[in-house]
Structures are given as structure tokens and as C-alpha cells.
Design a protein that fits this description.
The chain is an alpha/beta fold. Helices cover 41% and strands 15% of the residues. The protein is built from 24 helices and 17 strands. The strands form three sheets. Strands 7-6-8-9-11-10-15 form a seven-stranded mixed beta sheet, sandwiched between helices. The protein has a five-stranded parallel beta sheet with strand order 1-2-3-5-4, sandwiched between helices. Strands 12-14-13-16-17 form a five-stranded mixed beta sheet, sandwiched between helices. The longest helix is centred in the N-terminal third of the chain and has 22 residues, at 17-38.
Length: 618
């Protein structure tokens, strides 16, 4: 009933405070109903329904700016800004994005998808505001998990330089940073943000600074005494010591109380952190009991919370093999950056807890931590999403590869990942990993080769990356299970004129294309490259001698990928052969199902078959 009243931005301001609670219940039910059909981030969004309502009520949008860290919790924000009717298309091809998107609506202030960068972006907005001489409010909403990211600390370290009001909302849904001291906390918040207190503090400081020889020492003494008192009375001293006013903790499901706190926060001349306590999955019992499972979910049955189980994915196979290898080799250790479930390390953790390390959202630290473990005689496996490993490039190059250390990078979600869109597509890893000396990069054609390659990586000695896609694993070509040999490819089909050089997930497409073309009496050669670095140079020379055309196939951007490496090799060696490339163009690919995105990028079976037909008819 109340949700029907929300048709445009700021309609929430037309409701009474009592009606806001009823609106919250309706939005909760709306999210459960829709996400059960489309899939998406459920637990995190249910946890911030009340918080989002309070933010939209307390601030003037779109003049004020709200920046959502990560952004997967922005669904209520989208509903309150007039996008409710688009929710059937959530995360679908050309539909509503599951993350903030400026091109979708001007009230989305920053395109996000990765974590920990909101405070930096907000400070940039504040600096721009000050330079323009305007007075809009800037608010960032960051979770306690995202606070573990290094860039968040870098921003906090510089926050004291901020001039004018800047509000950081800490959405604490997992760990309590400080004790809730109830009434004392409320009174301190009001006292310390009141105009009298702020004005008196400034007046006293300004007056003392004018007293030569005495003023400065006295100010230091007062500040030292004040700091000691605050240690006893005020929670959040970590932030206070960094020059950030702390308010809270506040009940993140008490809309009225949050609105009042945000009004107080607006009075602070400088950076202020509002600590809000929320519950992930609020309003849906199953999600509250299993927040990790409902962090990002596919379609599910509301009554049971169970999702439809498809074929095992590459992550499932990795999970099984890691567990087995952990039992066989006590030197194997596992590292995750707050993605234990997503990367398949939960089983390893359960079996070998002393050899499992979750470092939080801190990929740079994870890479160098792995380097230290390797130097200490262990075999670290860092399981990480491709797009998240981008943050640790410098550490991969300097701390691992330069020292030629045996660190294994299990790169999940490589290639196009589907409905999470451009922030999560893992399409740049070859371009930033293969140029680094000492690095070896490989990708399996199917579940059996993933198992063999992980075992190969553990037995290897040096930096090595194993990349594999999201979703159901290809189980075909089991009969082709040659031992994994460093830098050696395998020929899966022998044909003529055209050779398809396929890497990783594209082997499945190459095999399907070869089978389709065979029905037209067109025989093509299919090669499973296996290694992006080192390339099988002998095989490349042989294919150039026996074929008129070589077609590289990769689920990666064409610039800096397999195609570039093969073309460079042929050019350097003076080899004459017609080379063509299938891969991702020089553009950020939007959301949609992987088959649909393959089709859009010309990477699907039909597109490859059309290319081959054109080549043989030239």
C-alpha cells in the first residue's frame, strides 16, 4: 500500500514516520519476491532497507550525494528513486543494474562494484564542492567488511584535511567496533555536535593561539586531557584520533533514531562517522541464519530458501581438489580475501583450519602475505576473483615474481561472469599477468584438466596462475586427458586450412564449432592451448605450416591477451600465416547471461562458424 506511493525520487518524504516502518516491511517483502526470481544480492540489501529509508528522508537528493561502497546493497535506493517498476529486469541483459550506475539515474553518484573506495570518492566530491563554493552534503555508506580494505584506511588517514561537512556511514553488520553505551552515547552525540559546543571549542582555541608562548602549550595540554577523558566516555576513539567525529552506535533498524542522528551529523564542520548497527538478511529468517549463502544468490524457493542446483561448477571442482591436496601435502595452505564461500575454500577451512587464512578485503596484503608463506617453506594458494586480483598487481610483480616464489593464484570468475556486469568481468588478467617475468599462466578446458592443473601447480616451483570461469563446468573431451606439461598444448581435432587456437573456456566453443562445421564437411583443427605463458611455440610454427588461417579464441580482452601474444610471436619469427582473433573488444561489457554476452562479442559458436566459412571462401 505504501510502496505504491513511491513512484519518484523524494516521495518517501511525503510519508509520516509511522508509515516509514510499514514501508520498510513492504520493501522487504518486495525484495524477497523479486530476488527469488531474478537472483541477486539479498542479505546485504535486506539489512539496509531501514538505513536507506532514513538516508533518503534526511538528505536532499539529488542535490546531496550518497555514495554506496561496493554498491550491491543499493536495491532500496533504486526503489526510492523511482526504479521500482524496472525490478523484473534486475541484472538482466539491458535491464536494471545490480549496482549504482550514473548512466541509469543521476541519483547514483558513483559507479561501484568493488569495495573500500567510497571514502576516497566522497572526499573528491567534497573537495569539488568546496572549490565551487556550493553547500551540498556528501554521504558515503561503507560496510565493516569494506573497512578492511587498504584504500579505506588511506582515505581515513587523510580525512582530517576535509573542510566542511563530510558524513561517513559505517554499516556494521558483522563485528561490533565498540560497545553500545545507550543513553550516554546519545547525549554525547548531541552535545558534541551542538552549535554551542562546536562554537565554544573554536572560540577557546582561537583565543589561546593569540597568547604568545603560552597559548600553544596550553592547547596541547587541553587536547591531551580531553583525549584521556574521551577514551573513557566516547566509543570509536580510533576514528576520533584520526580527526573524525564519531557518532553512535545507532540501531540501524530504528528509522526515526537514524534520521535524528543524520540531522546531528549535518552540523559537524568536518568529517563525521555515524556508526550504524544492522542485521544482514533482516526480515527473511533463512537469510538471517545463512547470510553468506544469500550474499549473492540465484533464483530460489522463498519457503525453503533452496536454490536450483545445476551441474558442478569449476569452483566446486577446485574446492574438491583443494581438500584432497590439503590432505596429501601438509605444506599446502589456502588464502582468501573475504571470499571463503565464493572461491570454494570452505571445505579446506573445515578440514585444515590451521592452514586457512582469511585476510579480509585486502588483496594487496594477501599477495605479499602469500610471498612470506612461500619463503617460510609453504605452498600458498591464493583463491581470488579475477577482477579483484587487479588490486594486487604491484605485489604480484614485486613481491612474488621478482623473487620467483612458489605462489599459486587460483583465479576464479575469469572471463565474462554474466549478470554482475562490468565491475566483475574478469577479462584483464592475462594482460597484466603475462608480461611479468617468471609468471606462468594456464587455463583448463574442462573439469578434469582443472584438477590436473591444480596438482601441476602445487608440484611446480615458481609463480603460477590458474584461471577458470564462473558457472557450470564443461565436462566434455574427457578422452583427451594428456598429462600437463609446462608450455605444451594439445590437439583435440585435426583438420585443414583453419586452425582454432582456443584457451580455457573457449575450448568448449571451439569444439562445438568444429562439430557444427563437420556437418557441412568443413574440417577444422582444434588446439587446446593450455598455457598463455609460456606459449607452445613449436605447435604454433607447425600450425602455421599446415594451415592457411589461425584463429585465436579467448574469454579476455583482445588487447594484451592470447591473440596479441600469438600475433607477436608470428611477427618476430617472420612466420607468414593469416591470423584472426575472437575475444572481447576494447569496451566494458555490460551485464547479461554469459551466452548472450558471447553472442554480442562474437564469441559464440555461430559467430565462430561464420568466421570460418568466410575464411575458407576468401
Amino acid at each position: 500500500m505504501y510502496l505504491e506511493c513511491i513512484e519518484a525520487l523524494n516521495d518517501v518524504k511525503l510519508l509520516s514516520e509511522k508509515e516509514l516502518g510499514l514501508l520498510s516491511e513492504e520493501i522487504t517483502d518486495f525484495l524477497i519476491q523479486h530476488i527469488s526470481k531474478t537472483g541477486g544480492h539479498l542479505a546485504s540489501n535486506l539489512g539496509v532497507v531501514d538505513l536507506t529509508i532514513a538516508l533518503h528522508r534526511a538528505f536532499e537528493l539529488p542535490q546531496d550525494h550518497i555514495i554506496w561502497d561496493v554498491g550491491h546493497q543499493c536495491y532500496t535506493h533504486k526503489i526510492l528513486s523511482g526504479r521500482k517498476e524496472q525490478f523484473d529486469s534486475l541484472r538482466q541483459y539491458k535491464g536494471l543494474s545490480g549496482f549504482p550506475k550514473r548512466s541509469e539515474n543521476p541519483v547514483d553518484s558513483f559507479d561501484t562494484g568493488h569495495s573500500s573506495n567510497s571514502i576516497s570518492a566522497g572526499m573528491g566530491y567534497v573537495a569539488a564542492r568546496n572549490l565551487k563554493g556550493t553547500d551540498e552534503k556528501v554521504v558515503v555508506v561503507i560496510g565493516d567488511g569494506a573497512m578492511t580494505g587498504g584504500i579505506a584506511y588511506e582515505a581515513l588517514n587523510n580525512a582530517a584535511m576535509v573542510k566542511g561537512n563530510f558524513i561517513i556511514v559505517l554499516n556494521d553488520n558483522k563485528m561490533s567496533i565498540s560497545e553500545n553505551v545507550g543513553g550516554m552515547s546519545d547525549q554525547l552525540s548531541r552535545l558534541r555536535t551542538g552549535y554551542f559546543y562546536q562554537g565554544l571549542k573554536k572560540t577557546v582555541t582561537d583565543s589561546l593561539e593569540k597568547v604568545p608562548g603560552v597559548g600553544e602549550p596550553m592547547i596541547r595540554t587541553i587536547r591531551k586531557t580531553k583525549s584521556g577523558l574521551k577514551q573513557l566516555l566516547i566509543p570509536g576513539m580510533f576514528f576520533e584520533e584520526m580527526g573524525i567525529t564519531y557518532l553512535g552506535p545507532v540501531d540501524g533498524h530504528n528509522i526515526s533514531k537514524m534520521i535524528r542522528t543524520f540531522q546531528e551529523a549535518k552540523k559537524v564542520d568536518g568529517p563525521v562517522l555515524v556508526h550504524v548497527i544492522t542485521t544482514k538478511g533482516k526480515g527473511y529468517e533463512v537469510a538471517m541464519r545463512h547470510p553468506a549463502r544469500f550474499h549473492s544468490t540465484g533464483a530460489f524457493d522463498i519457503a525453503t530458501g533452496l536454490s536450483q542446483k545445476g551441474k558442478p561448477g569449476y569452483t566446486d571442482v577446485f574446492s574438491t581438489v583443494m581438500k584432497k591436496m590439503g590432505g596429501r601435502n601438509e605444506k599446502v595452505v589456502a588464502i582468501t580475501a573475504a571470499m571463503e564461500d565464493g572461491t570454494g575454500l570452505k571445505r579446506f577451512h573445515n578440514c585444515y583450519p590451521e592452514r586457512f587464512f582469511d585476510v579480509g578485503i585486502a588483496e594487496q596484503h594477501a599477495v605479499t602475505f602469500a610471498a612470506g608463506l612461500a619463503l617460510g617453506g609453504f605452498i600458498p594458494v591464493f583463491a581470488v576473483y579475477s577482477s579483484f586480483l587487479q588490486r594486487g598487481f604491484d605485489e604480484v610483480a614485486q613481491d612474488v615474481c621478482m623473487q620467483n616464489l612458489h605462489v599459486i593464484f587460483a583465479i576464479d570468475r575469469a572471463g565474462l561472469v554474466g549478470n554482475d556486469g562490468p565491475t566483475h568481468h574478469g577479462v584483464f588478467d592475462l594482460a597484466y599477468l603475462t608480461p611479468i617475468p617468471n609468471m606462468t599462466v594456464m587455463a583448463p578446458k574442462n573439469i578434469w584438466e582443472l584438477s590436473d592443473m591444480l596438482k601441476f601447480a602445487i608440484a611446480y616451483d615458481g609463480p603460477i596462475a590458474l584461471r577458470y570461469p564462473r558457472g557450470a563446468a564443461f565436462d566434455g573431451e574427457k578422452e583427451h586427458r594428456e598429462p600437463v606439461v609446462l608450455g605444451k598444448a594439445e590437439i583435440l581435432r585435426q583438420g585443414e586450412k583453419v586452425c582454432l587456437l582456443a584457451f580455457g573456456a573457449m575450448v568448449k566453443i571451439a569444439v562445438e564449432a568444429a562439430q557444427t562445421l563437420l556437418q557441412e564437411n568443413i574440417k577444422v583443427t582444434v588446439v587446446n592451448l593450455r598455457f598463455a605463458k609460456p606459449l607452445d611455440e613449436d605447435m604454433l610454427l607447425e600450425m602455421a605450416k599446415t594451415h592457411e588461417h589461425v584463429v585465436t579464441m579467448e574469454d579476455h580482452v583482445l588487447r594484451g591477451g592470447i591473440g596479441s601474444a600469438v600475433s607477436d610471436f608470428y611477427q618476430v619469427t617472420g612466420t607468414t600465416v593469416s591470423v584472426h582473433h575472437v575475444g572481447i573488444p576494447d569496451a566494458f561489457v555490460e551485464q547479461g547471461s554469459v551466452p548472450k554476452l558471447y553472442e554480442e562479442c562474437g564469441m559464440d559458436c555461430d559467430s565462430v562458424c561464420r568466421l570460418v566459412r568466410e575464411l575458407i571462401n576468401l
